[in-house]
Sequence to fold (322 residues):
Amino acid sequence: MSRLFEIKNLSVIFDTADGTIRAVNNISLNVNQGECLAIVGESGSGKSQTFLTAMGLLADNGRSSGIINLNGSNLLEMKRKELNKLRGNRIAMIFQDPMTALTPHMKVGEQIREVLVHHQGAGKKDSYKIIKKMFERVNIPEPDKRMQMYPHELSGGLRQRVMIAMALICKPDVIIADEPTTALDVTVQAQIMDLLKEVKTEIGAAIILITHDLGVVAGIADRVAVMYAGSVVESGDVFEIFYNTKHPYTLGLLSCSLSLDKKIDFLEAIKGQPPNPNKLPNGCAFNPRCNKVKAICKEKEPKLKFRQQSHLSACHFEFGVK
Ligand SMILES: Nc1ncnc2c1ncn2[C@@H]1O[C@H](COP(=O)(O)OP(=O)(O)O)[C@@H](O)[C@H]1O
Ligand code: SF4
Ligand SMILES: [Mg+2]
Fold:
């Protein structure tokens, strides 16, 4: 049986005046129905570009190679018209800033109605009922009134709920949420994460949650893939990632995560900045920042290897938190 959503050997390259930028380096990931895969890593690690590529939204100076299968069909080989049929319908994306995804001069109800008419051929009366029900589901108060509002008339939290409603409206197979709570204040962040947890169990879609904060994935993710400098450096079951961490970078991310308890007090925060993708260090890309670095790390690139069943790590050594 083929996976619901599967990335195989994906690379994404950008041509710039300063040379070639390798934003994503030969990564493979998959997610099944009803599952939540979290993609975690600092800013610039290639998380967004991986999934923008899947949505056919790569910038003009970008090129990709590899395979991205949705229900067995390769999205990277699809004609624009075929991809448009799937986007918003079978695969939907929620962005950090809903203002970039919503049309400013259109009432939010109308924008969602367009999606319903385009993908499902729904009539005016039916669409209204479906949208009202969805607004109620995502806890938008006074749905009739909100439908008639323009994006700028809504608070950040409500705009994000509108985006989630739009993503859910056609009951897609895959929902990609790219830092969906980063722009919101802490209380609203928690409400939006709770909403995503609820819809995950309700609609049975696969959810891909992209975040720089490993702390937010506990309680929602089934599996986690940690990205650094365009590569997956560790992946596995969420419990394994938290309690049997193998990669020094993931250990560093854990120590940065405020929501974790004192158990990991002994971990050290990661020093320095992620590397410039057009000047990656030799050997292990993490070596200039790694507190466990040895001579071999500066010479040889570690490959992603199985450490335990379904738990992969790309490090020359085997570390563990027990
Ligand atoms: N159009 C572009 N041209 C050149 N480089 C780009 C372009 N878009 C993204 N990048 C680079 O690709 C890398 C990965 O970016 P991104 O996927 O957005 O990171 P993340 O989402 O993990 O923060 C970054 O170094 C970013 O600067
Ligand atoms: S290969 Fe070396 S530098 Fe890279 S994470 Fe492992 S110990 Fe650190
Ligand atoms: Mg991003």
